[in-house]
Design a protein that fits this description.
The chain is α+β, with helices and mostly antiparallel strands. The protein has one domain. The protein has 3 helices and 15 strands. Strands 3, 4, 5, 11 and 12 form a 5-stranded antiparallel beta sheet that branches. Strands 1-2-8-9 form a 4-stranded antiparallel beta sheet, covered by helices on one side. The radius of gyration is 24 Å and the shape is elongated. The model has no long low-confidence stretch (mean pLDDT 75).
Length: 210
């Protein structure tokens, strides 16, 4: 992507590390249109991921549960500067923050009288992994410029490069979401999955309580 002024954005890398999982469920509605047999209960369910990092990590750390996983700053973007006949990789975008990652909006589950009597379990899985991560992380990106030891002051590049990198990251998160979700589903792994059931509900006359 040509940013002008001899600056070219060469590549964007999204090193995503995800640990699972939590969920939230809220009662949003109970209705009985024609009596107890017609009861319907609505639950707004929002599963999530405990922690996610946009950073490099030591792969061996995932096998050791005796200590927290360690992360280090990652190079997220490569930028070249055409200075005479020299092309230089200049930009490193660094981020290593933990966030509560969740679906961008809750999913409403509806339970009928039969579902409640049978204690039926309904499931919602987290799909918006990197979209919610990037939304949280973009505003916290720490930028630094490495001119390969030439001593050049390239601070002016930051203002030109950050908007382009932000736009590109927003553009790749949705396809990455789909890829991660489908791969995990094929393996039988559901990240941030919530199983919800309603064990009972009643309908009655409205009363005023002091």
């Amino acid at each position: 992507s040509n940013l002008g002024g001899g600056i070219n954005l060469l590549a964007v890398n999204l090193p995503l590390n995800v640990e699972v999982a939590y969920a939230e469920a809220k009662l949003t509605d109970i209705t009985c249109p024609t009596g107890p047999s017609s009861i319907k209960v609505s639950i707004a369910t929002q599963p999530g991921v405990v922690e996610a990092h946009l950073a490099d990590s030591n792969a061996s750390g995932f096998a050791d549960f005796t200590k927290p996983q360690s992360f280090s700053d990652a190079e997220i973007a490569d930028v070249s500067l055409k200075l005479l006949l020299i092309n230089l990789n200049l930009l490193q975008i660094k981020g290593s923050s933990a966030f509560s990652i969740t679906n961008m909006a809750p999913t409403t589950l509806t339970y009928s009288a039969t579902d409640i009597a049978n204690k039926a379990i309904k499931t919602v899985s987290t799909r918006n992994l990197t979209q919610s991560l990037t939304t949280s992380l973009i505003n916290k990106l720490s930028l630094s410029v490495n001119a390969l030891g030439l001593g050049l002051d390239v601070t002016a590049l930051l203002g030109a490069v950050k908007p382009a990198v932000t736009t590109l990251l927003n553009g790749v998160t949705a396809p990455v979401d789909s890829l991660v979700y489908n791969v995990l589903g094929t393996l039988g792994v559901h990240v941030g999955e919530a199983d919800v059931r309603v064990t009972g509900a009643t309908c009655g006359r409205s009363v005023l309580v002091q």
